[in-house]
Amino acid sequence: MRKLVAGIDVSKDNLDIHLDGEDRRLPNNRDGFRAIAGWFGRKKVGRVVLEATGRYHRALLQSLHAKGFAVCVVNPRQSRDFARASGKLAKTDRVDARMLAAFGAAFPDMAPTAAPGSLLDHLGDMLVAREMLVDQRAKARVVHAELGDPVSRKRLPRIVAMYDREIERYDTAIRELISGCPACDERYRILVSIPGIGPVTAAALISWMAELGSTGNRQAAALIGVAPMARDSGTRQGVRHVAGGRRRPRDLLYMAALSAKSHNPQMIAFYRRLRDQGKHHKVALVAVMRKLIVTANALLRDRRTWSERAPA
Q1: Please, are residues 104 and 96 in contact by the beta-carbon 8 Å criterion?
Q2: Cα distances (Å, whole numbers) of residue 108 to 5, 47, 104, 190
Q3: How far apart (Å, rounded) are the C-alpha atoms in residues 6 and 43?
Q4: How many other C-beta atoms are found inside a 10 Å radius of the C-beta of residue 224?
Q5: For residue 149, how many other CB atoms are within 10 A of its CB?
Q6: Distance (Å, rounded) from C-alpha 208 to C-alpha 47?
Q7: How far is the C-alpha of 64 from the C-alpha of 48, rounded, in Å?
Q8: For residue range 116-147, what is the model confidence (pLDDT) as tens digits?
Q9: At what angle do helices 76-85 and 93-106 cross, to 10 degrees?
Q10: Closest CA to 226 of 196, 256, 200, 184
Q11: What percent of the chain has pLDDT over 70?
């Protein structure tokens, strides 16, 4: 029996839904969620497909999971590429909902997205706010170095100090939030035991890479965007490149790799070996990133902390 697939285009205020040839628009709130659950229940929907939209889809995702529906949250770039491949160049909310339903029907083996946890959502929001403060502090430092007027030279250091205090407060709040969850605290202690992975990177992996420890090494590398992709055609073997992945945890993993290649004995030897083989600095650094995420995945799977000599 064919399972019905519903597509939902999510915006801040509205939800555009396509199901079994019918289009509807409902509000993105609890009333809309109740109407969707009743409609999908009567139709016996087998799968719901929607795009990742930052925070706008979170409440809907939680509501659908609570009602027992299988939900797949897809990358907007993938669904848009599918629409172009299908010859649908127009882009409206209604068209997007139809394309999401068709996308879900075309890939029946697509794995459902795990139900989000409110703690991980809060942790992710705090990390985004902290990232903003770090960016603003860096801009203030650059401006202070470039300007020479007395007023700016006097006030900008105070602004930088204010950002320092706020970032420190966020670091404390993030650690307290993680400590309040035994499972998250265990993951945190495992991650920070890896030389090169600091508190912020560990928190980011907990929030934005929740699959770590329950997925394969290749999948973990692909999820964060450090898995080399083949580019072969006929007898030609193209250069492998990394592509896609989750930007925020990848950016922090890049900084962790810079630290690991100087302080992690395993990564130091690995990086030097690649450089001795003639690999470019960035190629070797991405390989260190990949090795770090694979190591983190294995340690979380085995629920053990890092050691310089792996156990037999």
Answers
A1: no
A2: 9, 9, 6, 36
A3: 10
A4: 29
A5: 7
A6: 23
A7: 9
A8: 667 888 899 999 999 999 999 999 999 988 88
A9: 90
A10: 256
A11: 93
Q: Which residue has the higher pLDDT, 18 or 2?
A: 18
Please report the pLDDT score of residue 229 as a whole number: 61
Q: How many residues are listed for the chain in this entry?
A: 312
- What average pLDDT score do residues 265-279 get? 94
pTM: 0.78
CA 210 – CA 278 distance, rounded (Å):
35
Q: How far is CA 39 from CA 45, 93, 102, 209, in A?
A: 9, 19, 19, 33
Q: What is the 3-state secondary structure (H, E, C) of the chain?
A: CCCEEEEEEECCCEEEEEECCEEEEEECCHHHHHHHHHHHHHHCEEEEEEECCCCCCHHHHHHHHHCCCCEEEECHHHHHHHHHHCCCCCCCHHHHHHHHHHHHHHCCCCCCCCCCCHHHHHHHHHHHHHHHHHHHHHHHHHHHHHCCCHHHHHHHHHHHHHHHHHHHHHHHHHHHHHHCCHHHHHHHHHHHCCCCCCHHHHHHHHHHCCCCCCCCHHHHHHHHCCCEECCEECCEECCCEECCCCHHHHHHHHHHHHHHHHHCHHHHHHHHHHHHCCCCHHHHHHHHHHHHHHHHHHHHHHCCCCCCCCCC
Residue 188 makes CB contacts below 8 A (sequence gap 6+) with: 178, 199, 202, 203, 206
Span between the terminal Cα atoms of the chain, in Å: 49
Answer whether 15's CB lies under 8 Å from 26's CB.
yes
In whole angstroms, what is the distance from residue 282 CA to residue 274 CA? 11
Query: What is the identity of the amino acid at 219?
Result: Q
pLDDT confidence of residue 56? 83
